[in-house]
Model the fold of this input.
Amino acid sequence: MILPRFDVLVPETVDEACTMLSDHADEGVRLLAGGTDLLVDLRRPIIPQHVPRCDGCTTHPEGRVLSTIECAPSDSDPLMASGGSIRTALEGPRHAAPAFLVSLHKLDQLRGIERLADGGLRIGALTSISEIERSPDVREGWTALAEGADSLGSPLVRNRGTLGGNIANARPAADMAVPTIALGGTLTLKGSSGTCDIPAKDFPRGPGLSVIKQDEILTDIHYPSPVPYSGSAYYKLANRKALEISTVGVAVWLALKEPGGPVADVQVALGAVGPVPILAESVREALIGKVPNEKTLLQAAQAARGDARPIDDHRGSAWYRVQMVEQLTLRLLRTVLKRIRDSK
Ligand SMILES: Cc1cc2nc3c(=O)[nH]c(=O)nc-3n(C[C@H](O)[C@H](O)[C@H](O)COP(=O)(O)OP(=O)(O)OC[C@H]3O[C@@H](n4cnc5c(N)ncnc54)[C@H](O)[C@@H]3O)c2cc1C
Done:
């Protein structure tokens, strides 16, 4: 594989890594975790000719080569309105060859899976997908995440790929991002000016676009403690069983008020059916407070279908994808309810 020329910088601390990101912003700099997304990205040709040009919205009055998806929400959205401080899929260092890669491999504080005193879980951004797949804690308390890990790539890719890389890459089909959203995960971003926590659902802003700033690093992902009578599941529908990007991915987390009682809370996240993973808000309206039965579960699955915004592509048509959102949501709601019953 022929890659463009770059220098690799190896920081010893997270602060040093943030400084490197801001010092080399003008020359082009990218973070390197497992490299399974990044190195593929770097092989791509520099800014394709057909990329639409923004001729000057309020965020980019000078006009730049950009995805229209970035410009569309930017005028009304203060996060997007920070313009150049947000890394984007099609501008600057992302597709142009960066002069520097900042390798995270020495930052051991970014690795590991840890049960927290409040019952929650902290996973360091540099933790490999394999480690998550093998963790009994994750499988027991945050099953949807373990099932996301099972479904990602191949053993080789899972050994190198990291949770942070999968989420930071901000792809609509990312198999770890979708369960992270359904499980109510929170991302910790550290930059030169401090640390902030944001809900995982608010992180992506378009394919390859996110709210992360130029000098920020995703350091940890926190998952809330499992509540009584709750469970989760993830299913990836793809054309092959391995080494395949999902056609549709659905993650469900659900909690009952009491065994056999009404739904206390539910979160359904959808992958590959919109420009970002989608939290299907309509499912909450359809199911919270209702006793789950075939009628209410079907209503919830139909609500999820209404929240999907798919496109036609070589993996499946938009029509097929919305049918699958309904079917998979229904199937996963039943699976989660069975898991809750069986765990009594
Ligand atoms: C053959 C193959 C199959 C694949 N199959 C799947 C699949 O089935 N499902 C799926 O979801 N993905 C798949 N992928 C994509 C990829 O393996 C995963 O997304 C992986 O988790 C990325 O992690 P990484 O550590 O390799 O990220 P990298 O490639 O190192 O980084 C990805 C991006 O995130 C940024 N980044 C990395 N870490 C951080 C951080 N801590 N803070 C801020 N930014 C950061 C990088 O700068 C880069 O822009 C596949 C890739 C390959 C090559």
